[in-house]
Every structure is written in structure tokens, then in C-alpha cells.
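Fold it.
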Amino acid sequence: MSTAAPALASAAALLEIVGIWITIRDLQKARRRLADYLRRPRTVHLSAALEATFAGSATATGPEQTLEQRIEHLETWQRGMAEELRERDKKLTKRLTDRFDRQLMASENTLGDQLEGLRELVAGGGPQSRLRAYKGPLILAVGVLVGLAGNVAGTLPN
């Protein structure tokens, strides 16, 4: 049995223990970050409510009109009604479009905030290299390889 075998086995055990400890610590940190993310206040963006104003219809009283005057007045009112309806339709369409745009923007902002929170959760607070992100498992893997080398060295004749 080679004298290097016990040294390699000890180094492998130490590397495996350190790798497992770092992995457990990273898992605990990730769990705390997830808990912090789930507890963080959520921002929901709202848009302004739709305003509505109504114009009252006016009735005029005055001197008695003849039937012809009343018919002429009604015909004039009827011609003006079509234009008034077109104008109301334009105003209503613009108001609804503006409200939809505000609501869409509010939803976009809400989802953007949630996405940013998820990015922070997944990124872990800053840019990391893959080697640093998987430091514990890598040290554990090196320990296993060193242990394998110790086993091979132990089976070799002196």
C-alpha cells in the first residue's frame, strides 16, 4: 500500500466535507432569498378611473308656436342630432382608447416590477461566474476525484 493513499483519502474527505458544507450554505441562502422575495411588497399599478360627464337636455318654454314652427324646429333638431351623435361617438371612442392605453401601461408596469423581482431572485444579487455559483458541488467533485486517486494509489504495489 502506498503512503500517498492515506494522504489522498484524508484530502478527499476534507474536500467532500467542505463541498457539502458550501452547498448546504448556498441552499440556505437561496431559501432565504426566496422567502424575502415572497415577503416583498407587491406593487400594483392602477390607472385613473373613467370620468363621465353628462349634459342635461334643455327644454325651452316660450311663446306658443304654430304646428309648422314646431315641425321645423323638430326637423332642425333632428339634423343637428346626427352631428351631435357623431361627436359623442368620437369623444367616447377617444376616452375609451385613452383608458385602455392607461390600463395597458399600468399592467405593463406591474408585470415589469414582478419580472425585475424575479430577475433579482434568480441572479442572486449580482453577476457571478459559473465556477463561483457552483463552488460547493465543484469542490465536492474534486474531493471525489481525489478519493478515487487515493483508492487507485492504494491498490498499486509499492
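The helical segments are 4-39, 67-123, 130-133, 135-155.
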